[in-house]
Design goal:
CATH superfamily of the largest domain: Electron Transport, Fmn-binding Protein, Chain A
CATH architecture of the largest domain: Roll
Distance between the termini: 77 Å
CATH topology of the largest domain: Pnp Oxidase, Chain A
Strand content: 15-25%
Length: 542
């Protein structure tokens, strides 16, 4: 139990403290311009070639802006999901247990509990006070993509709305552009099949009423992880967040709108979203990796800003992947896809699901690994299942054998080059929905399913066998040569087309007894069991 807030789960600042205790948070105390320097600095750990294990969260304690203003509120970036390890710490499980915890939470949501006098209401600014320097401009909201974004944007958001007919709430992670001290531009995107917040907006529009909305920033990690998760429309994400931590999430009634908000949020912005007139919003660097240009989106009139007495503003790195937002999705989506294929569709032989992250943003490209010898009918069932589970996922799905490292694109191209016959192993899928991506493409979308698994026995990979590579690495390190970062495959191995005779020849070779092998082949020559002409490479034009 957390004595500070009487919580049974960590709030955002508890989480930051835990990361710092584990050496996973870097404090930056020198002045940092939130409009030009903050996000680019954190971005370097994704674009600078660092291994994932060296990424960390950042806490900026001396934040300024483009006009020289100084803020007394720290900004945390990368604290939610810069790495799967950071994500797992926020959830309170090991990395290996992330998937099972999600499945448990979705199946066992816990109803939130309402409390009085919540921490998020320690300071309240509303009405005319929002226009006297205490409104949105008082928050150190960073510019995410300097040089392209039209404004500072709220990005680590939990945007809360409620169905006016059923009372079911929705929590989504949507961007919010600062427009004035008391006005935001909101991009409450609809996903294929409908998104809760957008569907709520449509209902309020039909009723001719503005839509109440609350935006929570710096929420407990379990709540933050629930926002980007694609749950069934109508399922209460706050209850699922409770399932993640096996405890009811504490909520409180908002001050100026009839909604419940996370009681332990660092900051909450309340307001009404206009359902009559839209407002130009953007450009903004989107999570699909392209700049979303100006478009007409929702306008939110802010009615109150509430916060803790000493809050930390949370932001996330999104845009081009890998990024914090892609890790948030990847570590939750991959186990859900695997469970769907293995346990619901009963696809035989499926070993793993990997969603490609760099540049492609995890959703369009998916790799499936299968056990050796899996019937091709099962492989195709897996390919089709992965491409249809979510409309925005699986534009390109590739099946691979168990020996392929799905994080090594060279190994994947190797598999495509030698294990896939396009005429038999590739299918074009027409009539797909476009989903999340840059505008500009016209016409019907299509996809590709590829079976790049081994269909027959193949000869060994022509690298030294494992024991010899391991021994050579010991010598390499003894010599003080540069640090190695091997990628699979880094040693040879059998792929079925290998006999005991050839194994004996190989052992004779490394033991200096190659002449014994020559004597065997001479006996076979004399026995007459030989072809009439030497082996040769058969070219395609022969």
């Amino acid at each position: 139990m957390n004595a500070k807030t009487n919580l049974s789960y960590p709030d955002f600042q508890d989480h930051l403290a835990e990361l710092e205790s584990r050496g996973l948070l870097r404090r930056v105390d020198r002045p940092i311009n939130k409009d030009t320097e903050l996000h680019p600095l954190v971005r370097w750990q994704f674009q600078g070639g660092l291994p994932e294990s060296e990424r960390s969260a950042f806490l900026f304690t001396n934040v300024t802006d483009g006009e020289g203003r100084k803020y007394d509120m720290p900004v945390a970036v990368g604290a939610l999901a810069t790495t799967p390890e950071i994500y797992a710490i926020g959830m309170g499980v090991s990395v290996e247990d992330i998937g099972s915890r999600w499945l448990h939470a979705i199946a066992n949501p816990i109803t939130p509990v309402v409390i009085e006098q919540p921490p998020c209401h320690e300071i309240i600014v509303q009405g005319e006070a929002l226009k006297s320097g205490n409104g949105l401009e008082s928050l150190p909201v960073p510019v995410s993509t300097p040089g392209y974004d039209s404004a500072p944007y709220l990005v680590a958001t939990i945007v809360i709305t409620e169905d006016p007919e059923t009372g079911v709430r929705n929590m989504g992670t949507y961007r919010g552009a600062l427009k004035a001290s008391d006005r935001l531009g909101i991009r409450m995107a609809t996903r294929v099949g409908g998104a809760g917040g957008y569907l709520h907006w449509q209902k309020y529009k039909e009723r001719g009423e503005p839509m109440p909305c609350a935006i929570a920033i710096g929420v407990p990690p379990a709540i933050a992880y629930s926002g980007p998760q694609k749950l069934a429309v109508g399922q209460d994400e706050m209850g699922v967040a409770g399932g993640l931590v096996n405890s009811p999430i504490r909520v409180a009634r908002a001050i100026t709108v009839d909604l419940e908000v996370p009681a332990d949020a660092e900051i909450v912005i309340e307001g009404l979203i206009d359902t009559e007139l839209l407002e130009p919003e953007g450009p903004f660097g989107e999570s699909h990796g392209y700049v979303a240009l100006e478009d007409f989106n929702m306008s939110m009139q802010v009615t109150a800003i509430t916060r803790k007495r000493s809050p930390v503003l949370a932001s996330i790195v999104s845009q081009v992947t890998p990024s914090e937002s892609s890790v948030i999705k990847r570590v939750a989506y991959e186990p859900l896809f695997l469970t769907h294929l293995r346990d619901e569709l009963k696809v035989g032989g499926i070993l793993s699901v990997t969603m490609h992250e760099a540049l492609t943003n995890i959703r369009p490209v998916i790799f499936l690994r299968f056990e050796d010898g899996t019937p091709q009918a099962e492989i195709w069932r897996g390919l089709e299942g992965a491409s249809t589970l979510q409309a925005q996922c699986g534009k390109i799905v590739i099946a691979l054998s168990s020996d392929i490292d799905t994080l090594n694109m060279d190994a994947i191209f190797w598999s495509l080059a030698y294990r896939m016959n396009a005429a038999d192993d590739l299918r074009i899928v027409k009539g797909r929905k476009r989903g999340h991506g840059p505008k500009g493409s016209q016409g019907e979308e299509s996809g590709i399913l590829v079976d790049a698994t081994r269909k027959t026995k193949m000869t060994p990979l022509a690298l030294p066998a494992r024991e010899y590579m391991e021994n050579a690495r010991v010598i390499w390190e003894e010599l003080g040569l540069p640090k190695l970062s091997p990628k699979v495959p880094w040693h040879g191995y059998s792929m079925g087309d290998w006999s005991d005779v050839w194994e004996d020849f190989a052992q004779n070779a490394v033991n200096g007894r190659w002449a014994e092998s020559g004597a065997q082949t001479l006996d076979r020559r004399r026995s007459g069991v030989v072809p009439e002409t030497p082996a040769r490479v058969v070219e395609n034009n022969d």
